Amino acid sequence: MTELSLHSGISVHRIGAMILRYWYLLLSSWPRLLELLYWPALQVITWGFLQLYIAENASFFARAGGTLIGAVILWDILFRGQLGFSISFLEEMWARNLGNLMMSPLKPIEFLLSLMVMSLIRLAIGVIPMTLLALFLFHFNVYALGLPLIAFFCNLIFTSWSVGIFVSGLVLRNGLGAESIVWTLMFAIMPLACIYYPVSVLPVWLQYVAWTLPPTYVFEGMRALLIEHTFRTDLMLAALAINGVLLLASFGAFLALLRSARKHGSLLAGGE
Amino acid sequence: MTENDKASSRPTVADRSSSAAIAVDHLVKVYKQTRAVDDISFTLPRGSITGLLGGNGAGKTTTIAMIMGLVLPTSGRVQVLGHRMPEESAAVLGRMNFESPYVDMPMRLTVRQNLTVFGKLYAVKNLSDRIAKLAEDLDLTDFIDRANGKLSAGQKTRVALAKALINQPELLLLDEPTASLDPDTADWVRAHLERYRRDNNATILLASHNMLEVERLCDRVIIMKRGRIEDDGAPEAIMARYNRTTLEEVFLDVARGRVNGAKEAAR
Q1: Where are the domains positioned within chain B?
Q2: Among A3, A21, A25, A102, the residue to mutate for chain B (most B Cβ within 10 A)
Q3: Contact call for A25 and B105, based on CB within 8 A
Q4: Is B20-233 a domain of CATH 3.40.50.11540?
Q5: What confidence tier does A29 reach under pLDDT thresholds 50, 70, 90?
Q6: What average pLDDT does the structure give for chain A?
Q7: Which residues of B touch A106 (CB under 8 A)?
Q8: Which strand (E) or helix (H) includes residue A82?
């Protein structure tokens, strides 16, 4: 049987093999599955009750019902999407399996594509129950956002992959000593992404920085949809354009860091 | 026949490199101030078993890593199965494989799951038959559905060897293949490697500290010290050069700087 390829060089079989490897891993470990569900559920319950309390005591939030809990769910797509990508990558570092993979016919682009698919699978396991909790406990139906939700989701997941690819490159180059970046980098953009407040709250000079981040457009777009009932296509297209640049840049950075890792012999070391 | 005709019929360096399993040419690797590998050259013919000997820090692992494309040389070139590494690695990685104490198989996956994943990565045809054959040959059947992390050191080594043989490689690179094994298991692994080479005309390059292993398996030995090749030849020829009866004695002569004295005495 000839090898099924998307185009010259990229093998669907090899991507499938890597997804199978992570799937086996997920199924073999109930703590890993529980961890996927636990934090998102905790987040939505805490913020859901806060939303209820504020809505009862502030007329603006009563009108803008769901902005907090909606922001929490979208933030989790962004954060969990990146973690889903990066943790699958870290599993290879923890297992000291990276040398086996780098020596195999698996190509970097195939490796990254398999990590992207795994981030979607892990996200689905964690976030779908979270949205159902929001629906049953707080009567917030994120799916009622309709088609705009797809635009929000795509832009957030593209950003999460860009960050995931970049931090994976850093860990590849610097070993597990750089692991903390995986867990914390997304929080660095949190204040500027304006998850829970509008961009106009920021000082003017900082607003310019905020608008370089695709999630800022998504959270502004979500507020426009929930408060003004307007879908801002312009915001989504701008976010998509920046995401395109970010994805290309992160892939370039990953390849450069991989080359640097080969130069410094860190692929075999892999430790701290 | 003119001089020009003679010259054109003579095999060039490039011809010899492309027909060799491995051709290493003036290879250098410098890490900051350390010259881990210092201008080494050798060619391994297909179907040979070569031992790479040397003390800790001699440059064996770095040399093997450069052959595999995991480490970029500072200068020099490596050709594997006729292709430049790492530039043309895509053409050869499916035809070679390796085992090293620096890498592990995923611990939570069972032996069968691990072999399935790697078999798919290497696009092995009739994968379940191949896994069954390896399980039989390497005596993995009793624990094939057990997690890799729950195996003994000897069992893990056999599993790592099964992974290294999953694609029936033409070239096998082994770094300390019998380290931490009891003598019985180590002997068993050696016998399997000999059989594999014979049956598949495979080329094997192995780095080892076990001199008996090298004497038994290898038809050629390359001794490294401080990143350079100290000696290169058949085990018997090297032992004769140093006037020694075992490779272990030769190793000690090289490690302790008694090279010139030993060679003098042999003369």
Answers
A1: 20-233, 234-267
A2: A21
A3: no
A4: no
A5: confident
A6: 89
A7: 121
A8: helix A67-94
